[in-house]
Amino acid sequence: MKNNLVSVIIPVYNGEKYIKNCLENVLSQTYKNLEIIVVDDGSADKSAEIAAGYPVKIVAHERNSGLSAARNTGIDNAQGDYIHFMDVDDLLNTNFYKNMVEAIENTDADIACSSVIHEQARYKTQLFRKQRVYTSTKDKLTATYVGKWGYVWRYLYRLDFLRKHNMRFEVGRFIEDLSFSLPSLYLAKKIVTVPGAEYLYVFAENSILNKPDPEHQARLKVDAKHAQNHILNFARKHGFKIPGVNTGICRYGLRKAWVLLFRNNITGFSEKYS
After folding, report:
1. What is the per-residue DSSP string for 200-218?
2. Of 45, 195, 222, 230, which sits 20 to 30 A from 29 (CA to CA)?
3. What pLDDT score was predicted for residue 59?
4. What is the pLDDT at residue 63?
């Protein structure tokens, strides 16, 4: 396996509670050729000060510009062959990058897709048992459930692929992943699902999606509707349907019900997280 460089983009805004664990988790990876870029999005706490104690590159925004802008800054500053977007309050299993890089190199895919372990919503957990390559639009979108779960952090992208297609996150929106993930999967000639690469989504009380403020929650609903309209318009333009959104809805519902009824405990992780 080639020792290609992976750029890990970690946006942070007032994340002093999480940044230490996040960076130590990434630095404990068995794959060591990592360029860790912390984008400090105008934090008022000690996030940048804590990050400075680790072997990372810090890029600072003068003022808070939002997650999309921070990720775009990461793309602009990345020097790697591959790029991964990680949230500051989440965790990876220790072989995450090793298995993702190995899979994307061995299959010549544009995108590698990891398993997702959702700490709270069990039905959103998706564990891949076998490595599989997908090339058709229907298969790529069905295998990842991207129409329902747009999580950008589960993917490892070839950086030249993103730049070739000028992929950017829409600034000014909270629900930004879906409008990035689905078009990128459609444009990819080939994707690969990767067993043994697991992204743990941690429920954080004060994260963008979990703030209880009614005005904020109303904004999230507006942005969620905007994101769905965006992908539906994209699908109509390119002549395909989105599994779980405007086709295969019953299949998605049955899967969700099965997980809620029969998988009371999430099991089968390859290792413990800390």
Report:
1. EE---TTSTTT---HHHHH
2. 45
3. 98
4. 95
